[in-house]
């Protein structure tokens, strides 16, 4: 699988750890703010193909869309996202999610072979999640989230920026992820290979 590979781009959620049951646990912890939770999910789904010039512009639109048609405003959505939603997700991942042995084996093999590695996530708090999962972030050459690059997966421009930051050639790059429609499509968009974690 790693033959001829010089760079591996790993997804985080669902790829490094098993995220089964996490969405339900999020709902049970955040039942008191269900409209915000539902708005976050719906906006995230609808923003997959929208490109922004910066992370700031991405989130400005994200929170504006979340507030559309609701009683809360964009500022409330922003505060909730950074102070409640993401910290709850990080805490629950640390408390309840287990690492995927298959992905751990891939990471170990990459280290052994001197293959460069990046974590490329659709969500933020990459370092915080690695920390609660007891994964050494120093072993990766790059930690980055799609919003930092202005567009969610599978935007070609974001995937290309990851390759540029890694100084990687798509021909020798392997994307590893748990979703064909985001991780697989990102690889396809830049002409790299893809390995699906089932
Ligand atoms: Mg994933």
Total domain modules? 2
The averaged pLDDT comes out at 96
CATH architecture of the largest domain: 3-Layer(aba) Sandwich
Can you identify the CATH class of the largest domain?
Answer: Alpha Beta
Intertermini distance: 15 Å
The CATH homologous superfamily name of the largest domain equals: HAD superfamily/HAD-like
The distinct bound ligands, ions and cofactors come out as: magnesium ion
SSE string, helices as H and strands as E? EHHHHHEHEHEHE
Task: Tell me the helix content.
Answer: 40-55%
Main structural class: alpha/beta
Spans of 5+ residues with little confidence (pLDDT < 50)? none
Strand content: 5-15%
Could you say what the CATH topology of the largest domain is called? Rossmann fold
Cα-based radius of gyration, to the nearest Å = 17 Å
Number of strand segments: 5
- Major sheet: 5 strands, parallel
- Assembly level: single chain
Total of DSSP H or I helical runs spanning 4+ residues: 8
The spatial strand order of the largest sheet comes to 3-2-1-4-5
Can you describe what's shown?
This protein is an alpha/beta fold and 198 residues long. The protein has two domains: 7-19 and 99-196, HAD superfamily/HAD-like (Rossmann fold, 3-Layer(aba) Sandwich), CATH 3.40.50.1000; 22-96, no CATH class. Helix content is 50%, strand content 12%. It contains eight helices and five strands; from the N terminus they run βαααααβαβαβαβ. The protein has helices at residues 22-29, 34-46, 55-67, 74-96, 101-113, 126-132, 156-166, 180-190; strands at residues 7-10, 116-121, 142-145, 173-177, 193-196. It has a five-stranded parallel β-sheet, sandwiched between helices. Strand 2 (116-121), helix 6 (126-132) and strand 3 form a beta-alpha-beta unit. Helix 1 crosses helix 4 and helix 2 packs across helix 3. The longest helix has 23 residues, at 74-96. It is globular, with a radius of gyration of 17 Å. The chain starts with 6 loop residues before the first strand and ends with a strand. Residues 11, 13-15, 177-179 line the site of magnesium ion (MG).
């Amino acid at each position: 699988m790693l033959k001829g590979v010089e760079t591996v781009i790993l997804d985080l959620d669902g790829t490094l750890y098993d995220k089964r049951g996490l969405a339900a646990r999020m709902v049970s912890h955040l039942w008191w703010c269900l409209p915000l939770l539902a708005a976050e999910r719906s906006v995230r789904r609808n923003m997959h193909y929208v490109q922004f010039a910066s992370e700031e512009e991405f989130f400005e639109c994200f929170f504006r869309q979340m507030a559309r048609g609701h009683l809360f405003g964009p500022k409330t959505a922003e505060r909730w996202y950074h102070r409640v939603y993401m910290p709850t997700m990080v805490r629950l991942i640390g408390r309840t999610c287990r690492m995927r042995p298959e992905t751990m084996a891939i990471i170990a093999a990459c280290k052994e072979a001197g293959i460069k590695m990046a974590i490329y996530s659709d969500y933020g708090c990459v370092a915080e999640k690695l920390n609660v999962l007891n994964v050494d972030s120093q072993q990766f050459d790059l930690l980055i989230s799609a919003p930092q690059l202005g567009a969610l997966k599978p935007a070609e421009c974001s995937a290309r920026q990851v390759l540029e930051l890694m100084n990687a050639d798509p021909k020798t790059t392997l994307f590893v992820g748990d979703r064909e429609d985001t991780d697989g499509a990102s690889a396809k968009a830049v002409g790299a290979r893809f390995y699906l974690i089932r």
